[in-house]
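Here is one chain, start to finish.
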Amino acid sequence: MEADVSEMRNELQSRDSLWRKIQLECQQLHKELLKIKEYKDMQEIQIKHQSPCVQFTEQLENKNTGLLLFAESQEHQEEELNKIRNHVYREEQSHCSEQERMKTEISGLTEELHHKEITIATIMEKASLLERQLKMELETKHKLLTEQQLLEFRYQVIKSENVHLKEMM
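Its structure:
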């Protein structure tokens, strides 16, 4: 999108430069036209009587027509240039709006990520606490089981001794 805007800016600048050149040429041609008109006014009597002057008058009229066509073309170029300027402006506004929307979205996502990180940290802390509690319970059960096995072993020994004593009696 930025490449399009940059390309349009370049095109706008080149057209703007062309427009300035055209304006300078138009001013020069207008000055020439004024000089020619002055010359034409001064030589009008001679032009009517001399055939080469008639050709010159026709040439001047042709140049005048050409200048008018050139001025119309220049107006058309100016309209095109304004259209391009408006288009570039709209594109820039659209680009700025899109950037603002993306900034807002990124900010929201960052905030959401922060909340999730806090939640994960809390869960990890609880899991660690539960793991310690489970280890303690397992150790306690292991001790109790060991004691129970020891008691069973003693019981078997005592039972065996009782049987032996009974037999001896």
